[in-house]
């Protein structure tokens, strides 16, 4: 959203700089006076929270890299050295490990927020696509980071996940060898995982810059989904949203600090405190919680279709479940963005959220576990639940989203953002 720059350089140096590299003007116009819808709620604080998470991961990660050794004989010991010998090393590691969970928690809230309010719809498709690319890069980074402590789950997680590529005919095996730098998870894999784990956050940083740029062209969406129609609909970003974002961030940091100081290992797996051992397979190999839904989708394909065998189908379904996110702006046929005014779509959205949580639960169990417990008379296996939820996941995007958009009659909408805000105010005044 272009707006007149009101920046006035007021010293000799800032005037000199402004004529040569107007970075201060850019910051002032983007984060000081940027016209922002006046009705943004706390779900809009997560973009800032995510920026904070990225900074925390980079700062703690670089500091730990000074003490970590990417070699199969030393990786586990060097991680324990960080925990025991390095000053505040335990704090660095716990912030980094809990931080990855917090980063994903925030990104899931941010994505579901975008889906609820239709923020991916025109003219914000590029913003959404860049978001999905960030999400992919986050998953690649987290997966590689989990391998570095070289515990049992690091080793076996890497073995399982890289082996899924060899389900792809012809090119699968070469891809797996290329990812690992050899024929099995070993030193070559560890060193390249470390190199890429260090590099990818900076790729994410670059993508975030583009993401925020793509945000500043159309400007923010808002809870009504109605575009800004004039100055009566907006407020300058500072001080209103800098303060609101800061408050949201403080609440988020309380949750973050709770896990770091009171339950630092609650979100991890105890087996990763056992050094990697190629001769002992853990009874149950699971990824971190934030990747579990995709793991459930991967494992829910237990049957062959025509010449596609179950393993390849699992890989296609897993990658398809992410790829479909890229198409969302075009699958959604509704003219109304915000689900606030879409009564038919709303329950489907909440079912979708439940299905994602359910897939996470299925991903954490073994396929033969009983959904209703071991002694239940009903025979309902986890894998069956996973298959139902996987089917719903795809039906949601490919059938429900396009069809409901055509079929439903939206609720009456306010004429503008200012109208929706002021109506709320007059109703409150009348009630007093
Ligand atoms: C490192 C990760 C990310 C960072 C730092 C980040 C940053 C931001 C920021 C600062 C905003 C503006 C404030 C806000 O609306 O909350 C924003 C908006 C947005 N982001 Fe992200 N983002 C990230 C990941 C993602 C992902 C993974 C997606 C989707 C797949 C996404 C989709 C969006 C959309 C659609 C908006 C526009 C929201 C609106 O105006 O309604 N972002 N992001």
Description of the molecule:
The protein is mostly helical and 432 residues long. It folds into two domains: 260 residues, Cytochrome Bc1 Complex, Chain C (Up-down Bundle); 137 residues, no CATH class. It is built from 15 helices and two strands. The chain has a two-stranded antiparallel ribbon with strand order 1-2. Helix 11 crosses helix 14 and helix 13 runs antiparallel to helix 14. The longest helix has 30 residues. The protein is globular and about 65 Å long. The two termini are 38 Å apart. The model has no long low-confidence stretch (mean pLDDT 96). It binds protoporphyrin IX containing FE (HEM). Protoporphyrin IX containing FE (HEM) binds next to helix 3, helix 5, helix 6 and helix 9.
Domain module count: 2
Output the radius of gyration. Answer: 24 Å
Helical stretch count? Answer: 15
CATH superfamily of the largest domain: Cytochrome Bc1 Complex, Chain C
Q: Please state how the strands of the largest beta sheet are arranged side by side.
A: 1-2
Question: Mind telling me the CATH class of the largest domain?
Answer: Mainly Alpha
Indicate the percent of residues in helices.
55-70%
User: DSSP strand (E) fraction?
Assistant: under 5%
Separation of termini?
38 Å
| CATH architecture grouping of the largest domain | Up-down Bundle
Characterize the largest beta sheet: strand count, sense, and whether it forms a barrel: 2 strands, antiparallel
Annotation, overall tally of beta strands: 2
CATH topology of the largest domain: Cytochrome Bc1 Complex, Chain C
Overall pLDDT level: 96
What order do the SSEs take from the amino end to the carboxyl end, as H and E? Answer: HHEHHHHHHHEHHHHHH
Apparent shape: globular
Low-confidence stretches: none
